[in-house]
Amino acid sequence: MPEWKPRTKLVHAGARRSQWGEMAEAIHLTQGFVYDTAEAAEARFVEAGQDEFIYARYGNPTVRMFEDRMAVIEGTEDAFATASGMAAVNAALTAILKAGDHVVAARALFGSCLYVLDILKRFGVAVTLVDGRDLAAWAAAITPATKAVFFESVSNPTLEVIDIAAVAKLAHAVGAVVIVDNVFATPVFSRAVELGADVVVYSATKHIDGGGRCLGGVVCGTRDYIRGPLETYVKHTGSALSPFNAWVLLNGLQTLDLRVRAQAASALALAEAVSGHAAVARTLYPGLASHPEHELAMTQMGSGGTMVSIDLAGGQEAAFAFLNALKIVLISNNLGDARSIATHPATTTHQRLPAEQKALLGITPGLVRLSLGIEDTGDLLADVLGALAVI
Ligand SMILES: Cc1ncc(COP(=O)(O)O)c(C=O)c1O
Question: What is the pLDDT of residue 2?
Fold first, then answer.
């Protein structure tokens, strides 16, 4: 379907209908499949065809629809769904690494991603962390022993933007696999594969669901990688996506483009409205010309995305007063939801990071991460500006 535009693909790609011709994707809530004969069972275990399934840990028709739709949208040959975004990150890395290998990763990573790298270290994988914005640091860290590079294309929560094309060029020069956690870019603004990413990982829990209903993850890549090491790792270690959650995510994908564009428009309006406000020391939004990687964000994503982080001049006290004064924006720690969400990373999502690491990453006591939802932009601005007025 190369002639279809992304919004059409988000609605229709990967759909499989049973003999009943159902309109909505069917939920195949089954762990296993029945074979007509013993010979048929044997043949399927030797090699399962496109429409043949063995066991839901290996694959399931509803899950396969989600995988096929994600591969089409991301522009990869294939995709494999997982139970959560972290299962996807863990599988993407662990499936291809062994003791003695070397990984270079950006230091500004979601806490659980850093934890996965620590597990790899326990099994003899060397890990070097770099400032992801510093290409000289990547160049110095990547060596012929480097098997993979890993980074969030837009970092959580300080919204640093990493140059996918430049890092991929350095990594490919030594044959390393480029694995990009693309959650903040979303599949709508993603050009990761075109820019050189080999593997793109999403927490589908975020924008893809968009309703805060379920956990899910997906790894997108070449057929050799996905149906080779990645599938082998996930199917034997058990982090398969539930068919019910795949169905929720398929429904989420249908409205993804509409939601994310509306969220990004509100994010830009909010960032413009709060930057320069007396209570706000720093406004971090890649869509603002003042953001250090603004130009890069525009070429890489064509948008600043759906997230805005603000650093309140009054520190944690001001941040808590601001959060407690919000009436529409909810205090929580998810992102990408249709409902706007405010998070205080220093005391929640990034609480466990040592103080010096928080300081290095810019996770200050006053930092508040805002995930814009699809509510009316004017209502959101009034809510945030009203809460800023309270402090
Ligand atoms: C950048 C990033 N990667 C991965 C994850 C993990 O996703 P999940 O919560 O679905 O496991 C998250 C979310 O918490 C995230 O923000």
Answer: 61
